[in-house]
Automatic annotation (TrEMBL):
Record-linked PANTHER family: SULFUR CARRIER PROTEIN THIS
Protein name per UniProt: Sulfur carrier protein ThiS
Coiled-coil spans in chain: none
Pfam families (UniProt xref): ThiS
Domain of life: Bacteria
Species of the source: Mammaliicoccus sciuri
Length: 66
């Protein structure tokens, strides 16, 4: 399965839930905002959304600073 994440093409063996995809990218789900096909997704929905062929994702990670 091919999808676009932050403008870059990624290939995965099978369709994944958003939660599984974030795990595979080693991203902290508590610090991520996900836009899936132009729709903002709440973290409570990460297990319910399946990323499929040609989906487009924008991932933004909160980073603290001081």
């Amino acid at each position: 399965m091919k999808c676009i994440i932050n403008g870059d093409e990624f290939n995965f063996e099978d369709a994944l839930t958003l939660s599984d995809l974030l795990d595979s990218l080693e991203l902290d789900k508590d610090r991520i905002i996900v836009e899936w096909n132009d729709t903002l997704i709440k973290s409570e929905q990460f297990n319910d959304i399946t990323v499929r062929e040609s989906d487009r994702l924008e991932l933004l990670e909160f980073v603290g600073g001081g």
